[in-house]
Each structure stands twice: as structure tokens, then as C-alpha cells.
């Protein structure tokens, strides 16, 4: 089974290019179906596994199939984003086999983030896996990769101090706002969106007891739920231009494919404010606030990439912790590659497929028989007993027959194998 990954992130691609490849959660399922169909044709292997991780910092495609198709994956993603293959290639990274595992483990552990040791990425990765599962795009190989990623991340966080000195994006935004405004308790703040990032940012700013907080969101119900936690007011997105001038700080992070706050709206707001400064943080990819706003006098606009410079602090202090985390990741990569190699050797995968097919056949036969008996009015308990007995007999017939065949040495070997496979630890043949 070939495993590969293609991605762009904050280290390889500018913000505007990353915005072309950002996928909203409702886009994931149809995108995965399209990708699987394209790769199935390219690899001639119908069982292609795929998953997409899309955050403000990165978009990554993980794949597993009988044959590698890195170039085809690159071409497909370039087409979906409306750029040439050469442009995407110059800003992306292509990974195979062990490199994929190492990268996934580092991402899950927060070692490949703008904020070293960030915790949000693990939840985002789990959401990506859940979306792939619901779309029917995840198989045993990628499932193993991601489950091991989560386990490694958990070990890194429990065994090291990777997150002890990290500054989150939200905390960085508060720090920048504090440099502009003398007293954050006197400012009015508008949060646009109601997702995880806005929730985190609201929590950090609310700790400074601002004069007023407003939540603007497309779905009023979700906005009201978040607002209730902080004693904030709520407004629909359509009313933002009318009320922009009332706010000293604007923090935005939505899944909109187009800017929500335009240059003209900010210009009018600044005029009404008599050019009192406006602090803005655009955490969205693609952008929520038009980039030209940054050129306006008295408008202070920061993007996720701008905040990266704020959070890159105390790196030397954390180097020993990073090295400790990398050691844990090395061990995880080795274990995953051993598992992958074992599947590829000795016909393990075909055997697993045959066993699954055979047990499915037995199960279908017994269920069909049980339904016929129930239709005739047979007792439910008796039917269930017959079903369980029939399944057990089918599954054990070959094993029990093997125990009576061969030479004494062969039978002894069979006894040992059957004991290891079927008996619980500590039990002996003939015991329950």
C-alpha cells in the first residue's frame, strides 16, 4: 500500500495562495469523492483512501492506494484551486511513506504550527478524520496513520512541556491590541464568526473586561449561544457595515469564500470615527477583510501570517523540549512503518480481505436463515440461539478439524497457534 501526502502551509505558501485551497467543512465530502474518483482512474486501484486537513495555516491531502499518484494528486489540487501545476509545485511539499508519518505526527503534536505546541491543530485533525470517515473515504491504512498521530501527540503533550511557553494566536492578538490601546477595558470589540477560533479569541479578550463585546455571525442561533457566555450582544452579518464605526477592535474568522468587510466600509467607518484608530485581526483563510485596508491611515490590520512573528518567541528556551518531542515522534514513525511493511509482506492484506469476505458470507447466510424462522413465527430467543450457534460452528469448524490432523508435532504446533489466537491470557485448552 502506497501512502503519500501533498500540502501547502504557512512556511511554503503566501496567505492569498493558501486561501485558494481552503475547504469549508461542508465542502470536504464532495471534494473527497471527486478526488477518490480521479485517483482511482489514475492508479487503476478502486480502493483509494483519502483525507483532507484544511485550516487557516495549511491544506493537506493524505492518500493511500495500491500505487502512488503524487503527480496526479498535485494536478488535481492545482486545477481545483485555479492555478498551474508549476505554481502549486513551487509552494507545496510532497511526502511519501515514512515522511508522511513523520509529518502527520509533527502536525498533530503542534511542532509544525505557527505557534509551537498549539493545541487547536489536534482537534482540527480529528475533525478532518471524522469528515473522511463520514464520507466513506477512510480505510485501514490512513485510519492507522491518524490514530497513531493522535497517540503520539498525546504522549508528546503528557511527556514534554511543549505547550508551556507557547503564545496562542488569540493571546498574540490581545498583546498587539494592548500596544495600540492604552486600556483594553475601555474599548468596544466586534467578533465576526462563532467558530472555535473566535471562541478562543473572545475568551482571551473578555479576560481584559472590555467595555462591550458583540458577536456577528451568519447563524444567529450559534452567535447567541457564544454571546451568552460572555454577556455580549449579537448582530447579523448584514448589519456589520452600518455599525463598524462603533467598534475599536474587529476580530474576524469565518468560512466565507469572499471578504465580509470591504475597503469602502472601513473607509466610511474611519470617517465617522473622526479617524480614531481601528484595530483589526483577520484570522480567516481565505481573508474576511480586504487586504487593501492595511494601507489606510488609522487602520491597523493583522493577518495570521502577521501574528506569526509575535508568537515566535523563546525558541531557544524550548529547543530541548522540541528535541524530546522529536524522539517520541521517531519511535512512532518506526512503529507505523513496521506495521505498514508487515501488511505488505506475506499476503497479509489479501488474507484479511478473504477473511472479511468469508465471514460476511457466513453472517449473511445466518441472518437470512434467522429471518425465515422469525417469519414462520418461531420463538425469538430460540432463533437468536440458533443464529449464534450457527455462526460459531462455521467459524470454528476449520480450526477444530485442524486439531485432529497431521503428525503429533504438527498437532502440537496447531494447539499452540490456536491457543494464542482464541484463548484469553492465562487460560488453558479445555478451560473457559
TrEMBL record:
Marked site: Important for activity: 103
Reaction catalyzed: (S)-4-amino-5-oxopentanoate + tRNA(Glu) + NADP(+) = L-glutamyl-tRNA(Glu) + NADPH + H(+)
Pfam families named in the record: GlutR_dimer, GlutR_N, Shikimate_DH
Domain Quinate/shikimate 5-dehydrogenase/glutamyl-tRNA reductase: 176-310
The EC number(s) this enzyme carries: 1.2.1.70
Residues bound to substrate: 55-58, 113, 118-120, 124
GO MF, one example: glutamyl-tRNA reductase activity
InterPro entries given in the database record: 4pyrrol_synth_GluRdtase, 4pyrrol_synth_GluRdtase_dimer, 4pyrrol_synth_GluRdtase_N, GluRdtase_CS, GluRdtase_dimer_dom_sf, GluRdtase_N_sf, NAD(P)-bd_dom_sf, Shikm_DH/Glu-tRNA_Rdtase
Binding sites annotated in the UniProt record for NADP(+): 193-198
Domain Tetrapyrrole biosynthesis glutamyl-tRNA reductase dimerisation, chain residue ranges per copy: 324-422
Pathway as given in its UniProt record: Porphyrin-containing compound metabolism; protoporphyrin-IX biosynthesis; 5-aminolevulinate from L-glutamyl-tRNA(Glu): step 1/2
Family stated for the protein in its record: Belongs to the glutamyl-tRNA reductase family.
Assembly notes: Homodimer.
Stored NCBIfam families: hemA
Domain notes: Possesses an unusual extended V-shaped dimeric structure with each monomer consisting of three distinct domains arranged along a curved 'spinal' alpha-helix. The N-terminal catalytic domain specifically recognizes the glutamate moiety of the substrate. The second domain is the NADPH-binding domain, and the third C-terminal domain is responsible for dimerization.
Entry protein name: Glutamyl-tRNA reductase
Taxonomic placement: Bacteria, Pseudomonadati, Pseudomonadota, Betaproteobacteria, Burkholderiales
Gene designation: hemA
